[in-house]
Amino acid sequence: KQRVLTGITTTGTPHLGNYVGAIRPAIEASQNSDIDSFFFLADYHALIKCQDPKLVHQSTMEIAATWLALGLDTDNTMFYRQSDIREIPELTWMLNCVCGKGLMNRAHAYKGAVDANTANGEDADKAITMGLFNYPILMAADIVMFGAHKVPVGKDQIQHVEMARDIAQRFNHIYASKKQPILTLPEYEVGDDVAILQGLDGRKMSKSYGNTIPLFLTEKQLQKHINKIQTNLLEPGEAKDPDGSTVFQIWQAFANKEQVAEMRQAFAEGIGWGDAKKRLFALINEEIGEARERYNDLLTRPQDIEAELQKGAAKARIQSQRMMDTVRQAVGIYGLK
Ligand code: TYM
């Protein structure tokens, strides 16, 4: 069976970008009984960006509640918290020892940080932790631990999945026979119509840019956020170009084909921004309104969320322990039975 795996970092509250780029396609795909799905909360990854323990924990609960509220079937999928799988940091170390430093030098999160420091005239490594530098190796361990074939991600994560593939290949080259590889080489999967969703300012919607629209705002707050989407200065009645517009881009992510055509027409006819934003609100609200209620209810019952995570961890660890046994044998770290 095909194994499909993806994770979401537990910093902040899930936003429309995470929903459209990762959560929605993942839940849809998991309804297909020909695949085994693995979804997890990447809380070790969160420590790279966030050193506020309360926030890390809060975000983990919120993201778990998000997946559950959106209807994830936890009986037929693996849904777990990364830090409950103690084998993951262990495998990360093994992979550290086969991964060339040069590969990590090219990772764009790290390179971006170095470039920013250099541009500011600072020391190149200022405020860069080993956690950030090693981030793709931890991600590789997440992926190969469960033998994932496909990793659905947004475009920003493609490089990391390619690195996971390189690292797995390197490990196999050293420790496995050609006929019987130990680690499965993963492939990324980026949905055709799931481009990077734009945020309020037109850049990629991202927690780090502070331009997000959180997924489960109250109706009032959701409309308020949508109203903040930047638009050009065209007045009602002036024809607008849909393809440069964030309002239209987000519309496309929620609309069916007919609705896309309708909005395109409305733009050509010069729909006012206020009007377009009201329609966008209604469209999004219709899709997520019921899930929002379930989400708010779940957050009042953290023990129920925890129970789901424990159930997932118990299932996942059966597989991760088996994988670690194989890997330990392969590298020569084991005791006599
Ligand atoms: P993270 O938490 O930044 O994002 C989670 C997923 O959401 C996608 N995404 C977006 N898609 C479309 N538009 C956007 N504006 C947008 N913002 C985010 C991301 O591409 C991602 O798919 N390192 C990963 C988490 C991770 C992981 C893994 C993923 C850890 N281990 C193993 C896959 C496999 C991350 O930080 O994603």
Automatic annotation (TrEMBL):
<protein>
    <recommendedName>
        <fullName>Tryptophan--tRNA ligase</fullName>
        <ecNumber>6.1.1.2</ecNumber>
    </recommendedName>
</protein>
<dbReference type="InterPro" id="IPR014729">
    <property type="entry name" value="Rossmann-like_a/b/a_fold"/>
</dbReference>
<keyword id="KW-0963">Cytoplasm</keyword>
<dbReference type="InterPro" id="IPR002306">
    <property type="entry name" value="Trp-tRNA-ligase"/>
</dbReference>
<keyword id="KW-0547">Nucleotide-binding</keyword>
<dbReference type="GO" id="GO:0005829">
    <property type="term" value="C:cytosol"/>
</dbReference>
<keyword id="KW-0436">Ligase</keyword>
<dbReference type="GO" id="GO:0006436">
    <property type="term" value="P:tryptophanyl-tRNA aminoacylation"/>
</dbReference>
<keyword id="KW-0067">ATP-binding</keyword>
<comment type="similarity">
    <text>Belongs to the class-I aminoacyl-tRNA synthetase family.</text>
</comment>
<dbReference type="GO" id="GO:0004830">
    <property type="term" value="F:tryptophan-tRNA ligase activity"/>
</dbReference>
<dbReference type="Pfam" id="PF00579">
    <property type="entry name" value="tRNA-synt_1b"/>
</dbReference>
<dbReference type="GO" id="GO:0005524">
    <property type="term" value="F:ATP binding"/>
</dbReference>
<keyword id="KW-0030">Aminoacyl-tRNA synthetase</keyword>
<keyword id="KW-0648">Protein biosynthesis</keyword>
<dbReference type="InterPro" id="IPR002305">
    <property type="entry name" value="aa-tRNA-synth_Ic"/>
</dbReference>
<dbReference type="InterPro" id="IPR050203">
    <property type="entry name" value="Trp-tRNA_synthetase"/>
</dbReference>
